[in-house]
UniProtKB/TrEMBL annotation:
Belongs to the CBF/MAK21 family. This is CCAAT-binding factor domain-containing protein. Transmembrane segments: none annotated. Pfam families: CBF. Gene3D superfamilies: Leucine-rich Repeat Variant (1.25.10.10). GO terms for cellular component: nucleus. Residues 360-559 form the CCAAT-binding factor domain. SUPFAM superfamilies: ARM repeat. It comes from the Eukaryota.
């Protein structure tokens, strides 16, 4: 009887680390570092074979299975511990997944996908969801997302895939891109949580992702800007702060941010609060000498909104104040045609006379910038500024220093001495019923104007100008009697002569009036709305006499100094 011989069992193939396409080392922590040929275990020569998505995936799966077998064989104890941790509590599970990813990022796509799935399943549990989201943020930023470029799909690779290593890396890149997009979707979902404090956390994560990595920056910026319209003011203000921080880190994103905010501002049925925060973000942008185009674009946006707000009813004055402040800042850096701004000139003056004092000052600041280049609006501008000095509310105004600075610059710019004297007279009149700090500031302002203005001491009149206009009106033709005094009887109520009625003409139409009539003012008129024709040459600075004898020594000293200068 012949004994049956046992057939030898086929021995299992013995795999070595040399068969891996990529090295596994603690020094290699990012998958895109494998693009360097020195990190490859056995670099292959390029072939003419075309690698589509299916072939790339097949090559990576073979590489992943080989890595799992080698890892299970060489580190069996660690492998058993990690496998046990993956099926225990959520805290140990997270630690195990992160450990596997950090051990070999290129072979850890399955663990990364498990983390994303774990976040999706925990979305209803706010605390766990935020913890997993923070871990994923760290993993993507510090391991998977390149620092200086965006991710590509396999069919969008800039370099042709010609080797197995390149094919595996292309599949890794596409998978990371898809998982990162899923992670952003989940962050967007958390950002709509009913609790405001929960919504702030994912917005902060989105800002950090946007500021540190370029992947999907357009979508991230869109999600952040949209939160400016959050119904909760805490979330909206936090978003505004994050956007300001983003511009400080990356000034090159100004144009992209402006385009995104413009899309938000002109959206249908947008909340007024969203427009408010969006405008605050635009006006906080810092300009440089190279931002001429950006400043021009912002000016167009501001005036488009100005036209939109003018049509609507019950628009808060704070919107006009923000718009005017933004235009005033941007016009210094823009090379914009003033004809476009002149179209809105009447609207700007309407704001000066119809809104609160803060908004009026903003409008006057813009008008001053325009008046520096277009002198034809000087009289109208100075009339509006002179009228604001008569309003009682500006004394307690928070922007008092801004308003006085505007008056100071306007007086230095003006070339008409009678108008400057009218402003000096009005300022001194205000000193008579204000406190000491205000008086000292006004006296310093007047002294600086006298020092810096080309007219200098001629702006101060301490002797009344003789009134010779009435004598000129009664001359009989003898030119030698110009300097003789002429006396006239006062017309009483009993006289039969009819009263001469002089029609009143509003100061708005002063350009159409006879200039000689205005120049022939015979006395100082405190109620005149046009400072150029209020008769400031026919009055003395009597107020300085009172201030010179003021009880406060500083006021008396400042007033005496102005006397000494004259």
């Amino acid at each position: 009887m012949v004994a049956r011989m046992k057939k030898p069992r086929p021995q299992a193939a013995v795999h070595t680390k040399a068969e891996l396409l990529f090295k596994v080392s603690k020094d290699i922590s990012k998958w895109y570092s494998f693009e360097n040929p020195t990190t490859l275990t056995s670099p292959l020569k390029a072939t003419n074979e075309k690698y589509d998505k299916e072939k790339c995936e097949k090559i990576y799966r073979e590489e992943y299975d080989l890595y799992q077998k080698l890892y299970q064989k060489d580190q069996s104890s660690d492998y058993q511990w990690l496998q046990t941790s993956l099926s225990t509590t959520s805290k140990d599970r997270l630690a195990a997944l992160v450990t596997l990813i950090r051990r070999s990022p290129i072979h850890g796509l399955q663990e990364l996908e498990n983390l994303v799935k774990l976040l999706r399943s925990s979305i209803q549990c706010r605390r766990d969801a935020l913890k997993i989201a923070e871990i994923l943020e760290d993993v993507f930023v510090n391991i998977y997302l390149p620092e200086n470029r965006r991710l590509f799909f396999i069919n969008q690779q800039p370099n042709q895939v010609t080797t197995k290593q390149a094919a595996a890396l292309a599949f890794v890149e596409e998978t990371v891109k898809q998982l990162y997009s899923n992670f952003i979707d989940l962050l967007q979902q958390i950002a709509h949580d009913p609790i405001a404090q929960i919504r702030i956390r994912p917005i902060s994560m989105l800002e950090r992702l946007l500021s540190q990595r370029p992947e999907q920056e357009k979508r991230l910026l869109e999600l952040i800007v949209d939160k400016l319209g959050d119904p909760d003011s805490t979330v909206a203000s936090k978003t505004l702060h994050l956007l300001n921080q983003l511009l400080e880190k990356h000034p090159g994103m100004k144009h992209v941010l402006v385009n995104e905010i413009e899309r938000l501002l002109f959206r249908q049925n947008i909340r007024p609060s969203a427009q408010h925060y969006a405008l605050c973000c635009l006006t906080a942008i810092m300009f440089t000498s190279q931002d001429n185009d950006l400043a021009n674009k912002l000016i167009k946006i501001y005036f488009a909104l100005f036209r939109l707000f003018s049509i609507k009813e019950n628009v808060s004055s704070k919107f006009f104040a923000i718009l005017l402040g933004g235009v005033t800042r941007a016009i210094s850096f823009a090379k914009v045609d003033l004809e476009n701004i002149m179209e809105h000139l009447n609207d700007l003056f309407r704001i000066v006379h119809s809104t609160n004092f803060k908004t009026s000052v903003r409008a006057l600041q813009l008008l001053f910038r325009i008046a520096e280049q277009r002198t034809e609006i000087d009289e109208r501008y100075f009339n509006a500024l002179y009228k604001k000095l008569s309003e009682p509310e500006w004394k307690n105004f928070k922007m008092l220093s801004t308003f006085l600075n505007l008056i100071f610059k306007s007086m230095l710019k003006d070339t008409m001495e009678p108008r400057i004297r009218a402003f000096i007279k009005r300022l001194l009149q205000l000193c008579l019923f204000n406190d000491v700090p205000f008086i000292c500031g006004i006296l310093l302002l007047i002294s600086e104007v006298v020092k810096r203005h080309p007219s200098g001491q001629r702006l101060l009149l301490f002797s009344q100008k003789p009134n010779i206009l009435s004598s000129k009106g009664d001359k009989t033709g003898d030119d030698d009697d110009d300097e003789e005094e002429h006396f006239h009887d006062v017309v009483t109520e009993d006289d039969d002569q009819p009263l001469q009625i002089v029609p009143e003409v509003g100061s708005w139409d002063h350009k159409n009036l006879n200039k000689k009539t205005h120049n022939h003012a015979t006395h100082y008129d405190i109620h005149k709305r046009n400072p150029l024709y209020c008769g400031s040459d026919y009055t003395c600075l009597h107020e300085l006499m009172f201030l010179k004898n003021h009880a406060h020594p500083t006021v008396a000293l400042f007033a005496q100094t102005i006397f000494d200068v004259s």
